[in-house]
Design brief:
Elements: H1 3-20, H2 28-32, E1 41-50, H3 56-63, E2 69-73, E3 76-78, E4 84-96, H4 99-102, E5 121-129, E6 135-141, E7 146-151, E8 154-159
Antiparallel strand pairs: 1-2, 1-8, 2-3, 3-4, 4-5, 5-6, 6-7, 7-8
Length: 171
């Protein structure tokens, strides 16, 4: 095929692509419809606890992140590793003290600061991040002031009071 035959076909394909393109830009925040305004702010990683089965190496790794910060702004999160990720889901969930969560070792969400909302159930907001690695989800129960960040099988307490949160002033 000669170039003179290829160019008209490419030009037609290009014009078709322009015609079919959306007229207005689409913001990822609009598509995901994730309103994180109640959770926007900077959180300090303060303490490690367990909410399930994990290896002893994981808590040693997590220990290195104490004193680091997690920042939430809009549909973005900056992890303690300084990695910028998107929040790809934010949903209300009911957690239970069950074998699936705690294995045969037992345990309770109360032990990590959550307050029961009914008999052995804890209503929380769970944020999922699109980054791969040890930090994948945040569990929040703003009404109890409990904010948790998962690090593989460990849970890191996030201190919302030690850092500037959305809506707070510096004075």
């Amino acid at each position: 095929m000669y170039m003179s035959q290829v160019f008209p076909k490419l030009r037609s394909l290009y014009l078709l692509a322009i015609i079919l393109m959306p007229i207005s830009p689409i913001d990822a925040h609009d598509v995901l419809n994730v309103d994180t305004s109640i959770l926007s702010g900077v959180y300090e990683l303060k303490e490690i606890t367990a909410a399930g089965i994990y290896s002893s190496g994981e808590d040693a790794e997590a220990q290195a992140f104490l004193g680091h910060f997690l920042t939430i702004h809009g549909d973005h999160v900056v992890l303690p590793t300084a990695e910028l990720c998107h929040i790809n889901a934010m949903e209300r969930q009911t957690l239970k003290n069950d074998r699936e969560t705690f294995g045969t070792a037992g345990g309770s969400w109360s032990n990590v600061g959550l307050q029961k909302t009914s008999d052995d159930e804890y209503d929380v907001t769970v944020l999922s991040f699109d980054c791969s690695g040890p930090f994948s989800t945040m569990i929040a129960q703003p009404e109890s002031g409990t904010y948790l960040l998962s690090y593989w099988g460990c849970i890191l307490f996030l201190d919302a009071n030690s850092a500037l949160r959305s809506g707070q002033s510096l004075t």
